[in-house]
């Protein structure tokens, strides 16, 4: 890109990645290990649920769909991060940037909607157990899973199309580890007041989602505490503890990333929050759903035995 104000930008440059001579390989190998762990861990959960008849119920169906989405959610950003760590050209084309934003946020939206579905599923199972089988039918589970993905991908499409029409003719440096909506919008050679609207829309969507899930779990906890036997309370808590942990990790990192409004963080803290959001949260999910779940551990053992 030339320095003239009218020169068209054809690519964006990431400024947060260290150069090869500054030891970027020290970050490359841990990130590569984490990415491989995320992919293999979520694949094991997905196939364990699909191949074990004992796990063919709504709760595990939603977990398997969530694991499948996690694979692609991390694939939308981490491979490009790895490429930037070992390349002198730490750049991405505008088309590549738009695609990364679309798939990353669409998959994230789908996961958020699926987490709402999982919370409602646990709410019905614990608060209305006698009608659970009648309400959560296999057909409804398929519709909810498909609906989460379809809605997650459709809701962002108009926004990405709008961004693709914006002129980019000035600075082309993205001060982030992946293409995100607000950093990219701030580079557009036009009125950037839409960034404020972006912040408000994201904040409202996140807050509504968190409130729905939080209220579901508050109601669940109240019902569990009324169970007379300690064994019954323990069993009820165990069925939703994993979902609650994933919810806290996922939306905790999302809130730090997008509920900042006009607040600005130091670059190091900003990068750390982005890593938590894109890398660490997906890293813990397979651990939570496998190591803390006896049925899942047994299903994964069976998977290896069949292999």
From TrEMBL:
Pfam family of the protein (one): 7tm_4
The keyword Transmembrane appears for this protein: yes
Membrane topology note: Multi-pass membrane protein
Transmembrane segments: 25-48, 60-82, 102-120, 140-157, 200-225, 237-259, 271-291
The keyword Membrane belongs to this UniProt entry's keyword annotation: yes
GO CC, any one term: plasma membrane
Record CDD domains: 7tmA_OR6N-like
Protein name: Olfactory receptor
Natural source organism: Mesocricetus auratus (Golden hamster)
Underlying gene: LOC101840836
